[in-house]
Amino acid sequence: MLSVAIIGCGYWGPNLLRNLWSLGGCKVTAACDKDQERLSHMAQLYSGLHTTSDSDEILHDDSVDAVVIATPVFTHRDLGTSFLNAGKHVFVEKPLADSVAAGRDLVAAAKANDRQLMVGHTFVYSSPVRRIKEIINSGEIGDVLYISTRRLNLGLFQPDINVMWDLAPHDLSIILYLLGTSPVSVSCTGADHFGRTIEDVTDLTLMFPDNVFVNVQSSWLDPRKTREMTIVGTKKMIWYDDTEPLEKIRIYDKRVEVPPHYDTYAEFQFSYHYGDVSIPYIKQVEPLKVETQHFIDCIENDIDCLSSGEEGLKVVEILEKANESLQSGASVTL
Question: Distance (Å, rounded) from C-alpha 75 to C-alpha 121?
């Protein structure tokens, strides 16, 4: 049975610990955090869990097979590469790293040591997103024309990264998964409203091959938690709302139709098709449970992770180019 350790027990680490603890193919043996109060709380919840404030203790523990890193993004390269070089498999929360250079170091360390490197792109393991992928691949909505996403809420303000780096990785990982390709250019605007030089609102525009247009809106300054995505195809449209408890996906039989023949501009008239709305049944399974089980399965069966280090690096490349655009005010080619 695989022995797994958790590094970071603040906001997200406990959720990962809870799901790993419930799996049959591994045993969470240790948890690490600088906050002793958090460690004490984890020890109370999970009997027999060893706690430590020193990550080197886990680094040098040969009985630990894999580590899950849920610490601030600027720590990911140093922590991740040290554990990979020590021969341990690594799961790291999104985003993979705070720069392309740091992400490449992590990917290189995983390859050099023949270890799994997986990134916490949770939503590619969610039932609604996987169902949307099936719908797109089936051809039901036709060719994708554009995707629009809104991920908004009031806070949580991060001290070291802007709202795009905090929230957009979720949407970017979903979009890359759905489209199966990478963007060719990126443009980003944003604003810092509190003098921290950290943008709290951003608007990201991506152009993909075949003229597919994508817009990603992120905000820490919205009164209402919003998790919406619209996917417009040539035949139908999909609306996905992750805040809905049950009916997360709606498929609209709506489209814009172009007249097949016309002689003059005056004869050119769009027509609009309005059909039914369907709501697919989706079996609800906690994405984190699917994600953590996938990590264990990839280690045991030596298979590539769906959200591998390479996939995580694609997201970081987009974020870094978007930052360039944010500073320059110009579109950037990828």
Answer: 18
Give the pLDDT confidence score for residue 262 in this predicted structure: 65
CB 79, CB 55: distance < 8 Å: yes
Find out whether 257 and 274 touch, Cβ atoms under 8 Å.
no
Q: Where are the extended beta strands (E) located within the chain?
A: 2-7, 26-32, 50-52, 66-69, 89-93, 117-120, 144-154, 185-191, 201-208, 212-219, 221-233, 237-241, 249-257, 271-278, 332-333
Round to whole Å and give the CA distance between 106 and 255: 44
Single-letter amino acid, residue 2: L
Which of 208, 154, 217 minimizes the C-alpha distance to 188? 217
pLDDT value at position 263? 65
Tokens 């720069």 belong to residue:
99
Domains of the chain: 2-123+288-308 (3.40.50.720), 127-286+317-333 (3.30.360.10)
Give the predicted TM-score (pTM) of the model.
0.94
* 162 phi/psi in degrees, rounded to 5: -80, 175
Query: Chain-centre distance of CA 114, in angstroms?
Result: 24
Q: Which of these, 181, 109, 95, lies nearest to 144 by C-alpha position?
A: 181
pLDDT digits (tens, 9 = 90+) for 36-54: 999 999 999 999 999 999 9
Which residues, other chains included, contact 168 with Cβ-Cβ below 8 Å and sequence gap of 6+? Answer: 151, 202, 204, 216, 218, 319, 322
DSSP structural state of residue 236: -
Measured between alpha carbons, how far apart are the two ends of the chain, in Å?
A: 42
Collect the ranges in the chain with pLDDT lower than 70.
261-268
The answer to whether 199 touches 191, Cβ cutoff 8 Å, is yes
* Cβ contact 143:118 at 8 Å: no
